[in-house]
């Protein structure tokens, strides 16, 4: 709150300290709906030929201060209304402007599909749009959650401050195949390698629009846009001035299955923007969210080495989903499989989460159509995230700087992104590490951590076998209690001390996750259409540079700095034929990363419009995705195995790709050799008899994942108040990134004649002479996916609006090996139905949204890609809003997941329940 107060004070100081340029005059008035006479809040009012503009307040009123003298022309516009121009004389009295309802209010303008403005009806590919007015109308508590109501969207909630979206399958909690841009800046974390979604970015107060493209967009946006694109635009201070404040208070954890009591939730957001003279404008933003995260408290036994019917709380080898440390297990002779006693996630992580977003921008007009922009965005947040483990991204920071010059037909943009993981840690590792701090030997002495696990199992075996005085033999409960003597209990001083100590240690010796990585990006675009006249042509390109820094904890970068460069360029041409009824567009992009061969991704589309109301489209699209920088450069020695990124300079000298055996053949050789020696065969004879079971590995060098897809669709106005959209797509995918384990002996794998080297076989039998590697490579397997999405939007009488959409998706694994393909992780069927009326009365509005999706199996690295069932579920969001024009405030009462169905959206993540809130939004209080 101190930071927010500081930002507001700074904005007010700037507003009063910088005087207007020249003698000024004021023009004021009110904007109303021509049909109902109701005042229109949020209408845009600009002075033609200048940068001066504002928006109407909650009572439809506006005041513009301008230095332009004489006769003025005002342009008044609003979503859903027809734009109107009004002439204003020097001595004009307050105006009343009445806007007619637009007959084409379902025909919006989009930019992301072709990187130029065009009607959403004539977009060459499927595209969805959510603008500021739709967010205000939405039943969701914020704009990011409202995206889940768009057709084709998959939203995965890991926690209160972390949600991730995807389209068209191959979904995950950290989605490296889906690009998210905010004002053109990639929202990805350089070290994590994926977009940090709603954790950072913008608040509802500064959102202008969000456009979503389901499906590959690599032909225009490069390698990350493999599955789709979300393009978020924030408000320009020249068009959106004044002070806006929003305060939300709410509660979650109502009737929590864990037995916890309801917890408070608060979110405060402030935006202030002002135009100074005709050329300079600025804005500042601040928001702060705080609440109690939902709990990951599923204690289902998922131990893969125990028969399903024997799993459960009484299983000595139990491996509970959200208990950590019990993954450490052994099969004890004469006893069976036994696991260590673990710690619950709730005792290891921090569920009191927050999200702080600060931002500001200065805009300077160089002439009427050229604008120079500098923007700074800073975010710091805490969230729980599910990946290969459960991670606590604690006080994780992301800072972005942007400098941009944009004109009527061009832009040049440069930005940087820097991250700081600070106090982040691996929750599962933390449980295992604490478990190694207190174990005692049979004499009661605490052993060192490297001996803790073996000693614990020895204590267990001794007690179970009746070798300990006072212990009943063959009793698992008593054996565990004896092995657990001295165990640090959650909440104790010793437990908290060891927890904080290991969080503070990054790398293998601790649970901390350290990354201070950065990326730098420069790009530009030029539209040649005005010069060519006969067709529309755009071209552009970018250069990107990664500077990784883990201080040697994740990468081998203590001495050898890791820096990766990539670049790309694209061109697009479109032409209308048949008296503008047919629009043909072709585009292509070439991208090159320093570690991989270049990729060319073309796209071609045709849109046939027999009338202004009906539009048929067909397109061919391609996509590709380079491995992330962590995929290329991770070099993590976890003891029995080295996880090795595939960049050539990261693998040089290790001989992992060049001189190794397949893990499967090593297993077969070891089993056969052991059986032979056990039956009395001499060592050398057993080795020579079985060495040919070893197979030299042939792991291809890593390259980009690739896809190609075909799409056909129709979007049209069945009437002026009824919009229908339907599309079908079919895509094929290949070269998916996978991991492969190999075993490298110290000796050469093969002799000159191509046979297996006996010395290499002997090395395999000696731990000191071999090394296991987990390598990154691509699977040659091909798979396909297809699907249908359809949506209907109807504007009914008296302001009612109905939106309904549904999506069907199918995955065809074809002849592929399931181990070589990432999980589809998408339900076959999902649907949304929304009923709203933002003008039920002059002051009252409401919205109700229903989301349903079918059950499916979730595969993730958290459970070593073993399936976990996500049941089918329905969610209902609802809100009612009340406008108070005299106070320039809107009161909103709502509930997300209104009926409080606790649902898990990714196996191993938290069960998400209802969130109930009240918000007050004060808008355009200052002009």
Automatic annotation (TrEMBL):
**Source organism per UniProt:** Spirosoma montaniterrae
Can you give the residue ranges of the TonB-dependent receptor plug domain? 122-228
Q: Where in the cell is it found?
A: Cell outer membrane
Question: Coiled-coil region(s) at which residues?
Answer: none
Q: Name one GO cellular component term.
A: cell outer membrane
Name this polypeptide is given: TonB-dependent receptor
Q: Using the UniProt record, give the first listed, main subcellular location.
A: membrane
From which domain of life does this come?
Answer: Bacteria
